[in-house]
Amino acid sequence: MRTLAPLLGAILLAACGAPPTPPPTPPPAATVATATTATTEALPMSKPEPKVEDPYLWLEEVLGDKPLSWVAERNATSKAELEAAPGFGALRDRLRRIYDSKEKIPTPQVRGKYVYNFWRDDTNPRGLYRRATLAEYKKPAPKWELVLDLDALAKAEKENWVWHGADCLYPKYERCLLHLSRGGADASVLREFDTVKKQMVEGGFTLPEAKSSVHWKDIDTVYVGTDFGPGSLTDSGYPRIVKEWKRGTKLEAAKTLFEGQKTDMVVSGERQFDHGKEIDWISRSPSFFTEELHVRNGDKYEKIDKPEDAEASVWDGQLLLRLRSAWTIAGKTWPAGALLSTPLADYRAGKREMIMLFEPKPNTSLESYMGLKTAFMTVELEDVKSSVFVHTRTKNGFVRTKVDTSPMSSVWAWAYDEHTSDDYWLMESNFTAPETLALGSATKKTRAEVVKKNPAFFEAAGLEVVQRFATSKDGTKVPYFQIAKKNLPLDGSAPTLLEGYGGFEASMTPSYHAATGAGWLERGGVYVVANIRGGGEYGPAWHQAALKENRQRAYDDFIAIAEDLVARKVTTTAKLGIMGGSNGGLLMGVMMTQRPDLFGAIVCRVPLLDMMRYHKLLAGASWMEEYGDPDKPEERAALAKFSPYQNLKSGTRYPRTLFTTSTRDDRVHPGHARKMVARLLELGQDLLYYENTEGGHGGAANNEQRAYMDALAFTFLGKQLGLPAK
User: Fold this and answer.
1) Residue 512 near residue 435, CB atoms below 8 Å
2) Which of 418, 470, 640, 662 is most buried, by CB atoms within 10 Å?
3) DSSP for residue 499
4) Which of 340, 331, 344, 387 is nearest to 359 (CA)?
5) Which residues are CB-contacts of 679 (< 8 A; sequence separation ≥ 6)?
6) CB atoms within 10 A of CB 523
7) How are the residues of the chain apportioned to helix, strand and coil, as percentages rounded to the nearest 5?
């Protein structure tokens, strides 16, 4: 099954109307705003300065000598303080052992007769691409066949390669298009690789570093969108043009098939192999949540008549439409959030008879879906907890059967091999139980067979997970998960870490967080996950309620949860810390500027912070459907109300904050964090800043860097909130 969402993994940071119907909840506790003198103490007013639109624009020069010197100075200060803190070294080393553990589950990807896996550990920091038969994979200690040693390649080529995946040609999977990033940036280099000879293909398809979209058509042809030169990219920095490139010819000679608009987000082309049939697609995304889909037949293109904001995919001749908005067609209205199915051939012929594979309810949403050989699967959320269903096709439609999974869990499901099998993989975990990998079958009634288990990376005995609901400013009930020791004293004494995201339809589900367990929960801290609007926890309406001019609703939700924790005496403002990255980093910046009295410490990672210029920086233009367009006066006015960089004020004491970012982040510009820190330092604030020179938007290029960055965060939070080191 092909999901028509090109480059989404690279584009995603991690749709406006009335708030959705709230889920059924117990009566909410009263919310109380509490202030402490420590967080509201006023600073001396700074002297008036000449009005300059942005005196720190020079920090947007990513690799300039002056900005990098500034970064080095800030890094040295942060390293000196946090590396010297009690427990830092031990935590860093422990997290490194967790990330490098040879006992962790090797995530499987089946291609033909092999199970492939990409693996990193202490002896292979960049990673190994390897394979085994299924029988071998199931063994406790499989004997892997090495396909590519990325560390050896990096050493030979003197490049810090970071693996960005392999697109291998069906059905033999003997040729792959490798995507290799320098230092973890989204932009990658393309190389053609032979999995039989286990070497790069001499004279094969190659592309220089770019945010390319490349897919196989056949062994001698690819669909390619890349940086062809001036005018070939969208304002978001992604391909605007799709070409057909033949083996042995120069890229300049590739045939242009389709051109999008400069204001589009991305355009891509792809051949889908669907149960023995080949379908060629051209996809044009005018914005982050909209897409035009065209079937290619030679030089002719047939546009699929569908709602522009509906997500489309095709499986076994069925067109699947996941609706973001209610859709009235053929006299029937289908609800937003529904998943519809209809024969593609009938649909192209003008018929509009559909069945609903997923029917949303006020407290449910569709998390993911995937096709098998003859059956179909959905992963659904009910009050943010996962359930899995198999949909078996019969003469009378699909029969829906629930798969046996654990309550209060998060489940990731994917096809074993949709071309040949009705088997599927299930990866299941929750806040206190590590991941379990099982292999199930849609045609058998037996429970899925457990194949692998992750070890427990922290001590979870005595921990209790509860779900609660806070009441937001507009009366909406907002869920959150609290993980803490059983019988937690409600006396305000517990250092508490609250995390959130609230954007781009992304849901924060009850998953196992080894670093948080080792770095926070084991030390006696309380961990809280906020399911605020802007995410996908309750479907499209939950997301759409916090778009553009309604963005404040997401921030009100987060504030309501924080106030609820204080009102319930789980913690106090002085002991309440918050952490978020990317869009969650923007959330942190808003919390700092709107409610500096409510938090004792903040960790702000790879953030957006200058919402007046974000659309001019790297991939920022692709997110205007989420946040708004600063060049439109009415949308600029809404952005100005919460843009953290512009809302910093002299005379306010802000919570002490650790800002982290990456020089190699080519998605969210490091200038956001740099400029925010420079302005805060100008205002006399006490803070820390650390910029990793590698790592891309993930902040770290390998397990060593990841462990270091996480140790910085948890050490900082423990120090500020009074949580002793172990």
Assistant:
1) yes
2) 662
3) E
4) 340
5) 56, 645, 648
6) 18
7) 25, 35, 40
